[in-house]
Amino acid sequence: MKKREFNRRELRGLAIVAKGGMIRKLSEGNYLVRSSDLEHWYKVFWNNKDWHCECEDFKERQKPCKHIFAVLFLGRLPYIMMANYQAEGIKCPICRSSNIIRKGFDYNKGFTTQRYLCKGCGYKFSDKGNARGLKGNPTLLIVAADLFFKGLSYRAIEDHLKKVYAADISYPTLCRWTHRFIRLLKTLEREIVMERGIWHVDETEIKVAGNPYYVWNVIDEETRILLATILTYGRTAEEAEGVLNEALKNARAKPSKVVTDGLASYKLALKNKFGEDVEHVSRVRLSGLQNNNIVERVHQTIKERIEACRRLNNSESVKELLEGLRLYYNFLRPHSAFGRKSPYESLKAKKVLQT
After folding, report:
1. Spatial contact of 72 and 80, defined as CB atoms under 8 Å apart
2. Which of 228, 284, 304, 351 is deepest in the core (most CB within 10 A)?
3. Would the CA dihedral through 314, 316, 321, 322 be positive or negative?
């Protein structure tokens, strides 16, 4: 007999959520769930170890009842919504097999993860994915970071999460979430191993505390990975070389060619850094066969986010914002050239196919 995808109590928990108006959140980890006959409200609560319910079914079995499953599915709604929107089947992160079965939940107060087992290679994993190690609902964390880098303030995100997901998350918490998420993406960046390709480098001017500064961007032509986003006060050869150093550190491979505009600093910086080993194409035009359009588009994306800030008060906070934007661009921002996948997702999928 084929095993059902959901057991009876899970299905009844889903039905409670689908009815609407059957669950009341009292506080974090405390809920009231209405009975099927609409005569009673059962308290569902987290006791620092697992979920409990006041209903007779839980008292008798000491295992999750339909009321507990209703609360769990309610908390997972953001993930379910995003999974349906992306419309991608769950695959094993090791062998990429779709032969996956559900193996219960990992329970916690803030978010419940679904466990899976790959019948192809036997690997066990959860849908918390790359957000493991982060406290709280990882889906809401990703939503919050996405909204922030698209230009919303923390207070606006706080209001959005409360209205759309009924999640009471303060703006200081959202700020901490974003910083933790940036650190997580930074660790994921270590997985990226580039091949020798064509780098596009350019700089653009912004204002910080009323003073002119320059944002330098280095992007790989094939993968669209943004290798460096650096803020400097000037445009000397020394500063240009510092930008190349950062790009080389993140790429871990020298380029075969570097495309720039006619700024003299690039010629000296490239000579000092790579000698004659790297071809330098300079003085490119927007309409020419060899152009810098892809890095100009990056400038536009970054400036759109920066303009959403009321005021850029100091260079250190701007540097932190720019690094977050760079990681967001590589890991989260969908790219039309890759079928709405991020550059990182596209590169990872390509390497899986090659192996």
Report:
1. no
2. 228
3. positive
Stated length of the chain: 355
- Give the domain ranges of the chain: 8-75, 78-190, 195-354
Q: pLDDT per residue over 286-328, tens digit each?
A: 655 577 888 988 898 888 888 777 667 788 888 888 999 999 9
CB atoms within 10 A of CB 102: 15
Please give the CATH architecture assigned to the domain spanning 195-354.
Answer: 2-Layer Sandwich (3.30)
Query: Which one-letter DSSP state was computed for residue 196?
Result: S
Give the full edge-to-edge strand order of the sheet including 41-46: 23-27, 30-34, 41-46, 51-53
Residues contacting 347, CB < 8 A, separation 6+: 192, 223, 225
Beta strands in the chain (DSSP E): 23-27, 30-34, 41-46, 51-53, 100-106, 113-118, 124-126, 198-208, 211-220, 226-232, 257-259, 279-281
Give 188's contacts (C-beta < 8 A, 6+ positions apart).
Answer: 130, 331, 344
**What is the residue type of 256?**
S
All residues at 6 or more sequence positions from 333 whose CB lies less than 8 Å from its CB, including other chains: 149, 301, 342
In this prediction, residue 220 carries a pLDDT of 93
- The 10s digit of each residue's pLDDT in 10-36 is 889 889 988 888 999 888 789 999 998
Model-wide pTM > 0.90? no
